[in-house]
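Course assignment 3, question 2. Fill in each field.
Student: A.L.
Task: Predict the tertiary structure for the chain below.
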Amino acid sequence: MGRGIILGAVAIALLPATWLPAQDQGFLETHPELGLQLREGLQRLHQYDLEQADRIFTRMAKDHPDRPIGYVYLGEIFWWKALLDKRNKRLARSFDKHTNQAIDKGKALLKKDEGDFYARLYLAKAFANRSRYKVTVTSSYLGAMLAGLKGRYHNALAAELRPDYIDCLIGIGGFNYFSGALPAVIKPFAFLIGARGDRELGLRQLETVAEKGEYGQTTAKIVLLGVYYSERRYDDYSDLLFRMIEQYPSNPVFYTWLGNAFVQRKRVEEGIGVFNQWIEESGKEGSPRRPLKFLEIEKGKLELRKGRS
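Answer field:
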């Protein structure tokens, strides 16, 4: 995460809950197997077990080809990959392909029924993913803001359909915070196109989902990482990253973000010690499955930084 994180969490994942009143039964409620698939797929995704995540989300898209849900997450797989390979145009094309499919599917469903909650929800998520990609991978901030506005529009309509749906606060809170904390150079353009938010309210909303959300807890925490970074709350940023690494020790992206956090906190020596300990533990019986290659890379970066200081 670098300075692009200022807008990155406008790209918000919006994920379905498991309970709803009987009269509000929708697509996921009438297909309970999808909830189980989604939970497993998200666990694989956040563990960076992307091959297994791809199989799960491909099955979801195959079983429900008119729905955006599977395509949304197939696109998200390529966002995670691109975070470690930002110049790879093939990854960008794959991300665009699946995200465009999700958007087209969602729009087609809404033409038939504007009150289709899950069509609205996952259309919002597709635009949010596009916004997140543009910020964190290609640094296209204006394009990210425009995609974020479209996502916010559909997210707001989804929230109107189901006001008690707590995970909708990820999108609402993320947009509130980041549009209320835009850099001065961008803010005038943001106001012209209606990107106005309340950063304090957005922060409270994100913290609520991180604590109480159903499917969206991890997503909310990833967004909060962006908040803490933009606020220069590097201790909170690092503490949250350590907790996420404990939960998902095999995800290399979190280690790259943590290495940067040690630099920002001016604790390079401490960082070298942490990565060195993880390297020494790697492969030992009972130790978490960590990505050794990335541990060595981050340790090397910190050692290089130490040598320059």
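Instructor remarks: The chain has 16 helices and no strands. Residues 232-309 form one domain.
Grade: pending
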